[in-house]
Specification:
Blueprint (H helix, E strand, L loop, with lengths): L1 H9 L20 E7 L7 H14 E13 L5 H9 L8 H9 L3 E9 L3 E8 L2
Parallel strand pairs: 1-2
Antiparallel strand pairs: 2-4, 3-4
């Protein structure tokens, strides 16, 4: 709620919605962009499927989904340590997230990078 208040104070004419991502209170085909930042690893497989379905529903044709999330890479020692401390209970590999995304969207950008965790940044379009 604090982030929503901060956004509204900085962008008073902006449109901000607090909603369950599995049942967004946004009209069908009304959004140009859905940002999905550091959330996927907190969701069960069923919830993740619902979120991607909802993003597909609310995005206009040509609308973009931006996904940024840490991904599981068992070869990175620091990443394995951080996963033990992370409150997300559903770490997935980059490949798992990519497969779920391409089943609904056209992926136009996909890259992995590492700081301590390995992350994935994906941009997909509703066709």
């Amino acid at each position: 709620m604090l982030k929503l208040k901060g956004f509204r104070s900085k962008v008073p004419s902006g449109f901000a919605v607090l909603s369950d991502a599995t049942r967004m209170s946004i009209a069908t085909e009304s959004a140009d962009v859905v940002m999905f930042i550091a959330v996927a690893h907190h969701l069960t497989d069923a919830m993740l499927e619902q979120v991607f379905d909802e993003a597909l529903r609310v995005l206009r044709v040509g609308g973009k989904l931006i996904l940024l999330d840490p991904v599981l890479n068992r070869e990175l020692l620091m990443g394995r340590i951080l996963w033990r401390l992370d409150r997300g209970s559903y770490p997935r590999t980059a490949e798992e997230l990519h497969e779920k995304l391409i089943s609904r969207f056209k992926v136009i950008h996909w890259e992995k990078f590492a700081i301590y965790h390995e992350y994935v940044l994906g941009i997909a379009i509703r066709t």
